[in-house]
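Milestone 3.1: sequence recovery, worked example.
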């Protein structure tokens, strides 16, 4: 199974969360920002990624804002942006192109840590 981290604000239509297998969540800012940990079988990963990308928001209220989500299993890490996808490993040394792309679309370097990216590192 793949685990993924998906931010509530990243999706225009929030029904995607009801349709996903949520195995954990973490609230921030009085629940305005929620990180969902979802679980997906390998055969459903690519269709889910396409749905997430098609539904990904490009703004919060009136502010332009880009998002990403990521999925991981064993040593595989899949980083999903609205218009681009990166398949790398859980080794941070393989993340440079994904991080550079994220920065190029306005995501802060500090938010491009793709954490957690191993089941052992999960805290929720």
């Amino acid at each position: 199974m793949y685990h993924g981290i998906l931010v509530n604000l990243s999706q225009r239509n929030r029904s995607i969360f009801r349709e996903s297998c949520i195995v954990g969540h973490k609230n921030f800012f009085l629940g305005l920002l929620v990180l969902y940990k979802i679980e997906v079988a390998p055969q459903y990963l690519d269709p889910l990624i396409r749905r997430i990308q098609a539904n990904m928001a490009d703004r919060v209220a009136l502010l332009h804002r880009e998002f990403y989500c990521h999925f991981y299993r064993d040593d595989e890490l899949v980083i999903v942006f609205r218009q681009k996808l990166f398949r790398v490993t859980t080794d941070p040394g393989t993340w440079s192109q994904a991080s550079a792309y994220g920065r190029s679309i306005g995501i802060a370097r500090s938010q491009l840590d793709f954490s957690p990216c191993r089941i052992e590192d999960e805290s929720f």
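Residues 42-55 form the longest helix (14 residues). The mean pLDDT is 94.
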